[in-house]
Amino acid sequence: MSVTVTSTELKTNLGHYLDLVAEGFIIFITRNGKVTGKLTSTISSSVDAITGILEGKLPDDYNANDIRDERLGVV
After folding, report:
1. On the CB side of 35, how many CA atoms lie within 13 Å of its CA?
2. DSSP code of 37?
3. pLDDT attached to residue 1
4. pLDDT at 60 over 80
5. Alpha-carbon distance 26 to 41, whole Å?
6. What are the b/e assignments for 26-36, b being 16+ CB within 10 Å?
7. What is the DSSP letter of 67?
8. Whether pTM exceeds 0.85
9. Structural domains of the chain ordered from first start
């Protein structure tokens, strides 16, 4: 879930957008019509962060929990 806002809108209603980030939204910030920043929660697992970066590059049958279990040696 993401929202795109202007830097002026973000400045004016920062509390509202911080609440959205706490709910899991990603806020893209624009200036002069171009995305210049991204506001995200610091509460996310490293697997989720890497998965987001690799979105579209991972196989269709990718499952983060299976990969984690395999890496930890959980059978």
Report:
1. 9
2. E
3. 85
4. no
5. 8
6. ebebbeeeeee
7. H
8. no
9. 1-42 (3.40.1620.10), 44-75 (no CATH)
